[in-house]
Design brief:
Oligomer: single chain
Number of strands: 3
Strand order of the largest sheet: 1-2-3
CATH topology: YefM-like fold
Number of domains: 1
Strand content: 15-25%
Largest sheet: 3 strands, mixed
CATH superfamily: YefM-like domain
Length: 95
């Protein structure tokens, strides 16, 4: 489980948050207006994430996205709206 903290509070407590991540094996999700903004993870966690196959990466993103339950559907459009993403890249053959 990740610890959630608003960005304004995280700014004031950055050193403590880093210690929690590095020494307490915690993951910290920084939020803005209640929405996940960034996550602080240890360098070891990041290295493990970077070594995952692509299918496993999608599982991790899905897990992080579900940290906070919402009433919005978990469709791609719902996730884009939840994270404030206004556009997405589509290949030349996309419909």
């Amino acid at each position: 489980m990740a610890y959630e903290i608003p960005v304004t509070q995280a700014r004031a407590e950055l050193a403590d948050l880093i210690n929690r991540v590095v020494y307490g094996d915690e993951r910290v999700v920084v939020t803005r207006h209640g929405k996940p903004l960034v996550a602080l993870v240890s360098a070891a966690d990041l290295e493990r994430l970077e070594q995952l196959p692509k299918a496993d990466e999608e599982q991790v993103v899905s897990s992080v996205s579900s940290l906070r339950s919402t009433s919005a559907p978990s469709s791609g459009a719902g996730e884009r709206q939840r994270f404030g993403i206004a556009a997405e890249h589509r290949g030349p053959n996309a419909t």
